[in-house]
Amino acid sequence: MVTNQTRRSLLKAALFGAAYPLAGCVTTSQKTQQPTLIGCSIVGRDRFQAVVADENGLPLKSIALPERGHGVASCSKHQHAVAFGRRPGTFFQVFDYVTGESIKLRAADHHRHYYGHGVFSHDGQWLFATEGERNTSRGIIGVYDVIAGYEKVTEFTGFGLGPHEVILMPDDSLAIGVGGVHTNGREPLNLDSMSPSLSYLDKNGELIEQVGLPDHKLSIRHLAHDGSKTVLCGQQYRGEPDEYPSLLAMHTLGGELLPLQAEPEQWARFNHYIASIAATDEWILATSPRGNCYGIWSKHTRKLVEQASLPDASGVVVQGDVFKVSSGAGGVVSQRRPGDKHRIRSGVQWDNHWSVIS
């Protein structure tokens, strides 16, 4: 339930959360750059922002968030971005990513919370958000009418407990990483009976296909697609602490989930958790803030070809054929292929995910 204190925090953010430049980080030359990347950041104790950056990850504008953010959805048709509260999230914040102006700060519905991710439809008409029912964790995709001021118009459900990330496929269907975990706040309650899945819904919310992994302790959470029909999913392992199964898999409709390959000691470095994923025609890159590293796999062989250290490795997106990787320690890595990387300092304490404006 959204508490009075939460509502006061949301109201305060709405009143005082106008965009402002990041002091000490934005130069005159940077202000002329185009907004390209958006992510949430941690500023200090109980201070959080969404940050708009240029193509190099250098900050241009920011907007205050009432609580810690997680994923960001963006829509170039309207110049809108939406930052979602970290699970169990109580809000999403809509803003203009060019001007930085706040458009709408929406509290979660009664007995609902956000799981931290959402995506716009291709035509910009709808926003789809992963939500849960409090006390049950029943999975919901909230459907919001963008033109009507982000009014919720319907809910899709019937695919499982604890959906985390939702992405839009090229054919307008939705792919959902369903964690399968019933939680009280962030405390898991059903690890012995959890039932994760990769689920697909059509544009009307009907279940198209649902697939799982043999090990039900692999909670499917984060997703990406390769621009075509292949979906990549990253897992959080909820099993024995000294076991290190594959944490990544790839899938196309009608097929099986195919685990990506690495040695157990390499999987151990990821510390049982994959955060962000991105893919090109040749390569797949996945980050682990808990493991302070990221890995690059060959899409064709499914084998790990590079594992690199990066403190609090967080978001990753693809621009053209170049991966851009963010760090909670402020670094940004640009990498086209294994062994070819360029690092800069952004001055931003990036959180788990990035969104690229397309």
TrEMBL record:
Tagged with keyword Transmembrane helix: no
InterPro entries in alphabetical order: Quino_amine_DH_bsu (IPR011044), UCP028101 (IPR008311)
Keywords linked to the UniProt accession: Signal
Keyword Signal carried by entry: yes
Ranges in coiled-coil conformation: none
Short name of one Pfam family: DUF1513
Signal sequence interval, chain numbering: 1-23
The protein, known as: DUF1513 domain-containing protein
Protein's organism: Vibrio aquaticus
